[in-house]
């Protein structure tokens, strides 16, 4: 297994640790930051998520720089993103930091795209992530981080950055899903 794929697998392995700090009420207390209070365990969860999200850029960088792009990497990298984002969204709904409908929209799109990828793989095709899909992932990651951090530091100026990013992520998710379907409908039609 090459370095980029190992980094991607590490991202997947960080998910249970992230969920532990997100969902388990650990007795670490709270911190005051920018005139707001945040649970230390939630701050640790945010840091783990940031590290995991950062590996998405890192594995892609090394895959391109070292010319280590593989079919496995094209498949596992977007899957790792989906697992991380899905885990975060479900956790954030559980602790009532985001509305369930946003999680449903984003997760539904991920299931549909994964289904198309599986059909493509059965036909011997591998579909790499598009630029729009990468922007969608980036906005989802930023929205999740801002939400995990309770909109700090923007809460100090009463700017709803986290909420705004959640809506931008939902819109880009829908847009990229439609774009993905249109660009790959020939794969679906071929398999029917």
Automatic annotation (TrEMBL):
Keyword annotations of the record: Lipid biosynthesis, Lipid metabolism, Membrane, Phospholipid biosynthesis, Phospholipid metabolism, Transferase, Transmembrane, Transmembrane helix
Membrane topology (UniProt): Multi-pass membrane protein
Subcellular location field: Membrane
Residue stretches spanning the membrane: 6-26, 38-63, 83-107, 164-182
Keyword presence, NAD: no
Presence of keyword Coiled coil: no
Catalytic activity annotation: a CDP-1,2-diacyl-sn-glycerol + sn-glycerol 3-phosphate = a 1,2-diacyl-sn-glycero-3-phospho-(1'-sn-glycero-3'-phosphate) + CMP + H(+)
Signal peptide: none
Pathway(s) of this molecule: Lipid metabolism; Phospholipid metabolism; phosphatidylglycerol biosynthesis; phosphatidylglycerol from CDP-diacylglycerol: step 1/2
EC numbers for this chain: 2.7.8.5
Known function: This protein catalyzes the committed step to the synthesis of the acidic phospholipids.
Protein family (similarity comment): Belongs to the CDP-alcohol phosphatidyltransferase class-I family.
Protein name: CDP-diacylglycerol--glycerol-3-phosphate 3-phosphatidyltransferase
Organism expressing this protein natively: Shouchella miscanthi
Recorded name of the encoding gene: pgsA
């Amino acid at each position: 297994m090459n370095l980029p794929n190992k980094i991607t697998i590490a991202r997947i392995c960080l998910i249970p640790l992230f969920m532990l700090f997100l969902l388990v009420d650990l007795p670490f207390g709270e911190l005051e930051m920018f005139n707001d209070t945040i649970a230390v365990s939630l701050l640790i969860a945010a840091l783990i998520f940031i590290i995991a999200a950062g590996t998405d850029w890192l594995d892609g960088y090394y895959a391109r720089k070292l010319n280590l792009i593989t079919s496995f990497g094209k498949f596992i990298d977007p899957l790792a993103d989906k697992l991380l984002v899905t885990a975060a969204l479900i956790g954030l709904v559980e602790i009532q930091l985001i509305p369930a409908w946003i999680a449903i929209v984003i997760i539904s799109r991920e299931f549909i795209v994964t289904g198309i990828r599986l059909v493509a793989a059965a036909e011997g095709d591998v579909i790499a992530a598009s630029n729009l899909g990468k922007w969608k992932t980036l906005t989802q990651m930023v929205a999740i981080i801002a939400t995990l951090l309770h909109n700090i530091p923007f809460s100090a100026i009463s700017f709803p950055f986290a909420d705004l990013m959640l809506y931008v992520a939902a819109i880009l998710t829908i847009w990229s899903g439609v774009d993905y379907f249109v660009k790959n409908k020939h794969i679906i039609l071929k398999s029917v």
